[in-house]
Structure formats: C-alpha cells, structure tokens
Amino acid sequence: MKKQIKALEILGILAGPAVGYFVGRALSNFLFDTFMKGTEGWVGILLSLLFAGLAPAFVSVLAAGCFQSRRYRPINVGLATFVVAVNLIFVAFRLSRSIPGFVTWSLDVALSMSAALAAIHLWKKADGILAARFPGKAGVREGPLEKVPQPSLFLTILAILSIPVTLVNVLESTFITIGISAALLLFLSELPRLPLILLFGAALAPLAAIWATATAIVAIVRPAKSEQAAVALDEEAQPGLAALVRDVAAKVGTPPPDRIILHAQPTFFVTRSAMKLLDGEASGRILALGMPILKGLSTRELQAVLAHEFAHFAGNDVLYSNVVAPAYRSLGVSFEVLAKTEVSGSTGAVMSYLRLPSLLFLAASHDYFATIDRMLSRGRELRADRVASTLYGKAALVSSLEKASVQGQLFDQLVGASPLEDPASLFAEIEGLLAANPSVKEAALSAIRDQRETALDSHPSLATRAESLPESSGSEPAAPDWDLSSLAGEERRLSILAVRRFNLPLASEVEEEEKEPAAGAGL
Length: 523
Known about the structure:
Blueprint: H1 7-35, H2 41-64, H3 73-95, H4 99-133, H5 153-189, H6 196-221, E1 226-227, E2 230-232, H7 239-252, E3 259-263, E4 269-271, E5 275-277, E6 280-282, E7 286-290, H8 291-294, H9 299-314, H10 317-340, H11 345-392, H12 394-414, H13 426-436, H14 438-450, H15 462-467, H16 488-502, H17 507-515
Parallel strand pairs: 1-5, 3-7
Antiparallel strand pairs: 2-3, 4-7, 5-6
C-alpha cells in the first residue's frame, strides 16, 4: 500500500521551516552588522524594521518552500510563517512595555507578515506555472490500495498542533492592520495639515480588526449551531428504514445514530454537532440522508452509502472533525467579519486598503490548515470506501457515488429552474428534470469521471475512489427492499419547508404577478 505521506516528505516538511528560520536569522545578522553601524533616528528605525522583520521573513518563507513539492508547499510556507510569528511574539515581550515599543512591534509584525505573504504569493505563482507545464507532477491520488488505508499519524498530530497556530495567526492578523495603520498615522503626524479621511481610516481599521478577532474567539468558545435545510425523521413511523440503518451500523461495528434527519440537498453525512433544522434542533450522533439522492438509490446502494458514513463513526473521524473545527471557525469568522466591516465613502476605501494584508494573511493561514486537514480527509474517505465496499460490494458503492455526484453538480441548476406547481413537489420536479434530460445527466457524469482532485479537495476524485477499491461483490446480502413511498409524507413536509427556506417561485405566484397591472398603468 502506498503511504499517505512518505518519510522523505515528512523530513521536507520539518526541514523547510527550520532551514528558513536559520537562513533568515543569518541574513538579519549580516544586514545589521553591515548597515546598522552609526545609524540613528528615523533612518535607524526604518533600517531596523527592514533588517529585523521584512527581509528575514521574506527569505525564511521563500527558503522553506524550496524543500517540498507543490503538494505540501502550503504546509512548509505556512509553518515557516508561523515560526516568524513566534519570533515576533518573543520580540513583543521586550518591546511592548511602552507605547512606542508596542507601535514599533506592530510595525514589525505588519512588515514581516507582509513580506511572508509576498513569498507565499511568489510560490503560488511559481506552482501555477509548473502546474500548467507539468500537470501530472503534483497528483494527489492515493491508490490503488492493497488494504484499508490509515490517515497519516504525522499529519493528524500536525493538524491538532495547528489549532493554537491558527489562533495565533488570527491575533497576528489584527496586529498587521494595527501596524500598517500606525505607520500611516506616524506619516500623517509629520504633515503640516492632517487629511481627515486618512486619519479616520487609520483610526477605524484597527478597531475593525480587533472586533473581527474578538468575534472569532467568541465563535471558538461559544460556537453557533449550524443551520441545515433538513427535518428530523420520525423513526417509529419508518420502521423499515430504521431497521436497515440499525443493521448496517451493526455490520460496520458502531452504535446506530441517535437521530436521522432528511436533508433537502444532495448530501449524506454523519456528525456529532448540534444543529438547527427546518423543524427544530438535533444533537448527538446524527445521520443525514439527502432526499434528492435517496429517491434514486437502490436498497443495495443505500446500504453501501450508510456503511461508508458509519465507517466515519467507527474510525472516530467525526470526533477528529469536532476537535479541529474551531480552527476553521476562527479563521473563517475572522476573515468574514473583517471583510464585511464596511464604512461608506472615502474613509471606507482607506480602511479597505489598510486591512487587505490582514485578509490575505488569514487566507494564507487557511490554505495552510486546509492542506493538512483535506489530505487527512481524503485518507479517511478512502478508508470508509473500503469498509463499505467490503460489506456491500464495489459496484453498489461506485454507483451510489456516481448518483450522488451528479445530483451534487446539477442540484443548483435544477432547483428553481421553473416555478413549482405545488410547494410539495420539489423533489419530484428534480427527479423529473433528470429523467427528461438524460444528455445533461450523462455529460455531468462524464465530467465527474474525468475529474482529478487537487491539494485542497476534501474528497478524492471518483476515479481515484473507484481504482482504489478491490473487485468485490460484497460479503453482506442486500436487505429486503423497503418501500420509499412510506416517506411520502416526510418528503412533502420537507419540500414545503425547503421551498420556503430557498425562497423558490411558485407557479401561482407568477400568475398573480402577471395579472397585476404594471406600475403607473391605469386611467
């Protein structure tokens, strides 16, 4: 079996930031010894910031990227940037005892992180050129596999250790804005007249950054419940489906879910997170069944999908996701709040420029963490595929994956394509459109089969998943067919609530609009 990450690749990940740090320190010492002798005043301060922050940070991140392929480069440069950030934190203890020292440190942070971003951007440009010329060199396919794959222990540990890293990066992003704003204020203080627009922008931008960071921290401590376009399933009213779910869970070796929900979108998943539904709330071990997919699955295919999802429970994948989720949450919330904090007019434009480096830094931090997490996710998906295929066969699993992928690609196009005659007919409408347009369905399936995953994909491509599975008919017999029509009531209820949630047009509403006279018309 091919390992998810090789020993030399691990060595490269560790060596890159280490070498980058020592190269940056050596450059900083050289520049200080060569150019800093006898310099005082503003010149001395500027040279100090240049030699202690900007140049070493740029060289450190640039050097770290040399030790890895495109596949792992975001990890290398991300770790190197974090090393730079930690070094700046130690500097803060020496300088932040006074206001001038705090301002100097903030400027250092802004320059250093901006330089690191420049190096990351250069690597992205270089990798983009290499990807265009050598598209196969950065493949991330794991198979074919000889046994159930286990996600890399090294990447798992690195992901868990990166949780506090992301929190530090969120704080660092705040000081980037503070430092750039402080530099602008210092420049403005030397002018004979103060431009009020620049002054207000430089004063408000740090406040927006502080608010974004505070909101991100609150989101970690008190996470908001995710909102799902789904309804809770009454299992007592669906004994056939409930029995099938319990049987598959027992075969996989995990307790059955506490709650089953019917989802309006084409998605199957398991989670332990509390969530808001269209008809209430759900918590505990939750299984989500996407109604658009469910309607097109055979019993055997449904068993294979359920086995795949329950393999995530059995492998503690859900527990891992709950541990690392706060890192994503903090980065995403901080970015969103900072990006959406708007002030009208010219002052808002100044704020936008001042906070741009912070937004780019948060995006780069997200790329770093996402690279690790999604590599692990691909390994977990392949392992869950192997469990499902062993129990219920490769053909059933691949067929269900194809149906789910087609629905996922076409769902947004199908929903709202035409006004609904009945708010309870949403899923029947989708099913009818797919049946009436086989060429669209075939084109989507062909594109999915030819697709290849990238380093930031959380799931392997369909081709990788199919090639990684052994030719097996499955060891477990198919359950007796259960009557999908028993879900008709639940389907109607979910459709009505989903139509309201998605604000989909109804034919009756369109007719009423056509009957109304145009504005200004009349006698």
